[in-house]
Specification:
The complex is a heterodimer of chains A (326) and B (425). By secondary structure, chain A is α/β, with parallel strands linked by helices. Chain A has 13 helices and nine strands. In chain B, the strands form four sheets. In chain B, strands 1, 2, 3, 4, 5, 17, 18 and 19 form an eight-stranded mixed sheet that branches. Classes of the chains: A alpha/beta (326), B alpha/beta (425).
């Protein structure tokens, strides 16, 4: 089964959230709408809603992450769920226990949901295929494949500033080849009707045949940013330089770093996003990261609302979790 | 033992047989492929109704996993699977544990096989000690022990000087080298074909140049050293072109393709299907079509099962962590014969690529129904439909990408050395 069919039940409702690929516009829109209803919760004095009371959520992080794990943890707690944080990088799988055994052990503890981050593409899909019928899986990032909650919080951020997706020009800048965020964003933007999606990077960071996902490729930042409404920056991993994919951070910044000057070719009301953590002076200039076009910190708080929405929806706790047909 | 096979359809490209006929076997050999010899009395009569009678399949690559990986499969389990597909001889790669780099390991394999009396085994010896890519093995001793060729399987020989010397040394003892062409650096961390699907799934890709550059490098050294070389498991269109060019130049090269590559492509990997994690990777559909064309034209000499049985745990992991390879022995014959109905192959071409050419590549007296030849043969009924069920496979490896596929045709009898080794009930 493909990732996008395994995540739906027979009525087309989300039971896992593994990828944005293959979902319909109605499903994505209802995630965004539902997240709106939680966006206010964090500002209240009592920050909890009882939707997942009595449920247990296990954060299975096979790859370390502070930011994503924390926002998932907060989201689950605000839904009144009990949260287990299991850092597998230092846990049983290192003692020779197989992934399947770990899952079954956790299931025996009656966990209702696994939030999974794993370094291998397809890991969340694999786990969704292994768990019992009443256990739900949310992908918190698998290899280079998908990071759907990040993409949805980016869509949420875009919609708050620019609600008409169809008229938007969106540029994704940076390491497309190794980025799960980029892939999930591209699918989500296409599904929401954005007709002008651009990816901008040196050739070594553009994967083969990326055009088939419905994007245009640019190797020149200034050309690619022309008149865009949204710029989604990606984080550059230092190992790309070690592995002969790029010559130096300096040259990367000179050619692909987002600076105030470069920003001028975009729309005056352009918004600049970044999934974090930021490499200042490598992919983005501090003045831009902290400037008035940056929405980077908003993204973080939106992340909690989106994760609350997705968790409630896959657990069937949302008022209308119906996604309709594809 | 004396066996009479009557009213079959004999297919033997070497003997120019492709039509109705009878076959008579006595004392391990074929005594007649035509008239009943005077006074022939059979211990076993096999009366057919036009089913194909073909020389036994010579499978150029079967991993039995023994010695060393008996938790995956054994010589006993895999020879039992082999005879169900008409395979009467099989070549076993040297990536055993210990590596087949000494006569002692070759002898061990032969001993284990002998007790079973099923499919014959022809081991390949390691081209370098422990497959380390550095030190040459004792090729003469390996040949004397019964190795039909040398190979480094999936372990790269990065140092071109070592590769040159290994080729030269093997050439001196008339041992063919079996090359799995892959550039170690270009493969990098790749786990599937680099293309549209790897981009979508975010799986590290293996570019086709990983194969074509390795082929080119080997071809130039083959030209220089004069070694006879067999290229294993071509996976891309461009590789077929390179082999065609080399043959045109008169280089002593042959090539094969695995049965999976004629039916599956990168699309089958979609959904992170770890049963389709193969090595080399399944490539694009145009590659599959070029491989079919290459097989038909004879640029690709042989088709083999490339059988790689695995235990369940080897595939029950995320795609990138799954061990490559598929359990394919039992679908080899039906999928190969199916090319007649679906791809316009002649029966004779299928038998040539399954039986005749592989036998000549490893230099054994097999792949023929000639009088006096060892009686290794199988009977194939192309009217027998069956459905592949992973759990029902005779192989210890249930890792088939063809689970639930409908097969048109089935092996009903396999005879090895004049003795029935398998009969379908």
């Amino acid at each position: 089964m493909t990732p996008h069919t395994i995540q739906l039940d027979q009525h087309g409702r989300l039971k896992h959230f593994l990828t944005t690929e293959g979902l319909n516009r109605q499903t994505l829109t209802s995630i965004l709408d539902y997240a709106e209803s939680f966006a206010g919760v964090s500002g209240r004095a009592v920050k909890k809603v009882p939707l997942l009371r009595g449920k247990t959520v296990a954060n299975l992080f096979f790859e370390s992450s502070t930011r994503t794990r924390t926002t998932f943890e907060l989201a689950a707690k605000r839904l009144s769920a009990d949260v287990l944080n299991i850092n597998i990088a230092t846990s049983a799988t290192n003692k020779g226990e197989t992934l399947q055994d770990t899952l079954h052990t956790l299931e025996a503890m009656h966990c209702d949901m696994f939030v999974v981050r794993h370094g291998n593409s397809g890991a969340a899909h694999f786990i969704a295929g292994q768990v019992a019928e009443n256990v739900h899986v949310i992908n918190a990032g698998d290899g280079r494949h998908a990071h759907p909650t990040q993409a949805m919080l980016d869509m949420f951020t875009i919609r708050r500033h620019k609600p008409d997706f169809e008229s938007l020009r969106v540029a994704i800048v940076g390491d497309i080849a190794h980025s799960r965020v980029a892939r999930s964003e591209i699918h989500a933007l296409n599904i929401l009707g954005v007709s002008d999606i651009r990816v901008i990077a040196p050739k070594t960071l553009i994967p083969d045949n990326i055009e088939s996902l419905g994007v245009r490729v640019f190797h020149d930042l200034t050309e690619g940013l022309q008149d865009v409404d949204v710029i989604a920056m990606l984080r550059l991993q230092r190992e790309r330089i070690k592995n002969a994919v790029l010559p130096s951070e300096e040259e990367y910044f000179r050619c692909f770093g987002l600076t105030g000057t470069r920003l001028r070719v975009a729309k005056p009301d352009v918004i600049v996003m970044h999934p974090g953590p930021i490499n200042r002076g490598i992919e983005i200039d501090s003045q831009v990261a902290d400037g008035d076009r940056s929405v980077i910190l908003q993204q973080v708080s939106h992340g909690i609302a989106i994760r609350m929405a997705v968790m409630a929806m896959v657990m069937g706790a949302a008022p209308d979790s119906s996604g309709g047909d594809n | 033992m004396r066996i009479a096979v009557s009213n079959g359809h004999l297919v033997c490209p070497g003997q120019r047989l492709d039509g109705p006929g009878n076959l008579y076997i006595a004392d391990g050999r074929i005594v007649s492929a035509g008239a009943r010899p005077d006074g022939f009395t059979a211990d076993l009569e096999i009366a057919l109704d036009g089913q194909y009678v073909c020389p036994g399949i010579v499978d150029l690559s079967v991993h039995t996993r023994e010695p060393g990986f008996e938790h995956k499969a054994t010589i006993a389990s895999e020879t039992a699977a082999a005879v169900r597909s008409g395979v009467t001889s099989m070549v076993c790669p040297p990536d055993t544990r210990p590596v087949t780099d000494t006569p002692a390991v070759v002898e061990l394999i032969h001993q284990r096989r002998q007790r079973l009396d099923k499919t014959r085994i022809y081991p390949l010896g390691a081209l370098t000690k422990g497959l380390d890519g550095q030190q040459l093995t004792e090729a003469a001793a390996l040949k004397r022990a019964g190795c039909v060729g040398l190979s480094n399987v999936d372990k790269p020989i990065v140092d071109t000087e070592v590769l040159r010397r290994a080729f030269e040394y093997a050439a001196g003892f008339d041992l063919p080298v079996f090359i799995h062409p892959e550039d170690h650096y270009l493969k990098n961390q790749g786990v599937m074909h680099e293309g549209k699907i790897s981009t979508r799934l975010g799986l590290p890709g293996i570019p086709e140049t990983a194969e074509t550059i390795a082929i080119s490098r080997s071809l130039l050294l083959i030209e220089q050293t004069g070694v006879t070389a067999h290229f294993c498991r071509l996976s891309c269109a461009r590789s077929v072109e390179l082999i065609a060019m080399a043959k045109q130049q008169g280089l002593p090269v042959t090539a094969d393709v695995g049965i999976c590559y004629l039916y599956l492509t990168e699309l089958n990997v979609d959904g992170f299907n770890s049963q389709c994690r193969l090595w080399p990777p399944l490539r694009a559909d145009r590659d599959r079509l070029a491989l079919l064309e290459g097989l038909m034209s004879g640029v690709i000499d042989a088709v083999c099962s490339d059988h790689q049985p695995h235990d369940e745990d080897a595939k029950a992991v995320p795609f990138s962590r799954a061990e490559p390879g598929a359990s394919t022995l039992e679908v080899l014959a039906p999928l190969a014969f199916n090319l007649v109905a679906t791809r316009g192959f002649k029966l004779e071409q299928v038998v040539r690529s399954l039986c005749t050419r592989p036998a000549s590549i490893i230099g054994i007296a097999a792949g023929t129904l000639a009088e006096g030849a060892p009686a290794d043969l199988f009977i194939f009924d192309d009217n027998r439909q069956w459905t592949v069920a992973a759990e029902q496979l005779a192989s210890a490896g249930k890792n088939t990408p063809f689970d639930d596929w409908e097969m048109n045709g089935k092996v009903t009898h396999t005879i090895v050395g004049g003795k029935p080794a398998y009969q379908d009930n």
